[in-house]
């Protein structure tokens, strides 16, 4: 048997859900260990835009908005559309009823927001965006976890749950080149994210074509789902995902705005400025963020933009979503080609290159100023081909058979490189309202809890801000349940 360490509550995964679980358990007196496979905390939370959707927030009250959890619960199925029948109504109620308190908990942790922003079919504005960026969640929650006494261990790859007489009592993991066993008297909370970058799970639930598409978060490999299945758990809604969608390649080191330190005073200053400074003065700063974090609009192709690969060949955008075709192209990337007329069209409303709902719209000139690495402008088609490293003859041949043929001697624009990615998927473990993982017979697996995407339980989280809302809400509750179980076991 490998050497072992014992605690009250063991949390697997150091994103928003895992940190919330660890904090809640520790603040209730439990001895908590959090295991993270990466070198630093963050998970998919750190990759997010940072929206949290909630009702009855101070921000809503300041805006004169009357709202309640019931209306939130009633509005959410509007995002799911024809998939609404697959939703978990009970977990949706848990989410909506717990979010006002969870939002206050985030504020008490030092996290600041702008908003609320409207996003139909929400009947009122409920979407709140974190300031200055999504790193603020990890920055403040990791410090709260430290104050609560949580022991965080990084570089730990958990590969199996340890069971004894049908009860999960710990995990086996690789740490610093050695196998180690971590035991927990109260239970194990799985908060290891989704499986958007697990080729085998994507192939199994979404098909072989999906398996070839990468994820926004490269370490979202479904570790929690995989381990839980080995002890009898069940994955639900594994075939549902946000994506694939076309995204700009991120800057080599990320935009400076995304690297702003998430200090409370800075976030508070930004919140004040957003509330009081005229929008025309704030727009340049907002554009620096939007042009870094968002995806190009499909309307580009509907209006006549071309998608070409690095060999100068056209990628079909007419018969289905081109995001499914990009992974088959050289280097899995492409460029969005616009002639002079299209470039002019996408420089003003209503034709935007990208948008953050309720926040702002980004046009071509915004990308030219803020993302010169993905916005290439040249006086003619041949010069543009050379600028993006595409064979001029091949590109000329493609354009010759399109509406752009007569305008190749005028200025032209290429946006890219772009790639196809999955943002997140809905395939979580089946759980009950106490976040206990259920087996295929619907019985709780003793000692095993799941939160966030790992414990999504069939809950549909479409719309901005619901995935993070569930991460923090389910994490807090799972940590509370595990801490109470540890208390009762003593």
What would your notes on this structure say?
The chain is of the alpha+beta class. It folds into two domains: about 5-245 and about 425-490, FAD/NAD(P)-binding domain (3-Layer(bba) Sandwich); about 290-420, Succinate dehydrogenase/fumarate reductase flavoprotein, catalytic domain (Flavocytochrome C3, Chain A, domain 1). It is built from 17 helices and 24 strands. Strands 1, 2, 6, 7, 8, 9, 23 and 24 form an eight-stranded mixed beta sheet that branches. Strands 10, 13, 14, 15, 16, 19 and 20 form a seven-stranded mixed beta sheet that branches. It has a three-stranded antiparallel beta sheet with strand order 3-5-4. The radius of gyration is 24 Å and the shape is globular.
Judged by helices, strands and strand pairing, the structural class is alpha+beta
Low-confidence stretches: none
User: Helix share of residues?
Assistant: 25-40%
- The CATH superfamily label of the largest domain reads FAD/NAD(P)-binding domain
Tell me, briefly, the overall form.
globular
Strand content: 15-25%
CATH C-level class of the largest domain? Alpha Beta
Concise overview:
By secondary structure, this protein is of the alpha+beta class.
Layout of helices and strands:
Layout: E1 4-12, H1 16-27, E2 32-35, E3 51-53, H2 58-62, H3 69-75, H4 77-80, H5 89-108, E4 112-117, E5 127-131, H6 135-148, E6 151-153, E7 156-164, E8 167-175, E9 178-190, H7 199-206, H8 208-211, E10 214-215, H9 223-229, E11 235-236, E12 241-242, E13 245-248, H10 264-276, H11 279-293, H12 299-302, E14 306-309, E15 314-315, E16 333-338, H13 340-345, E17 354-356, E18 360-362, H14 364-370, E19 375-378, H15 381-388, H16 392-399, E20 412-422, E21 424-425, E22 428-429, E23 436-438, E24 444-450, H17 466-489
Parallel strand pairs: 1-2, 1-9, 2-6, 9-24, 10-20
Antiparallel strand pairs: 3-5, 4-5, 7-8, 8-9, 11-22, 12-21, 13-20, 14-15, 14-16, 16-20, 17-18, 19-20, 23-24
Helix pairs in contact: 1-6, 1-17, 3-5, 5-17, 15-16
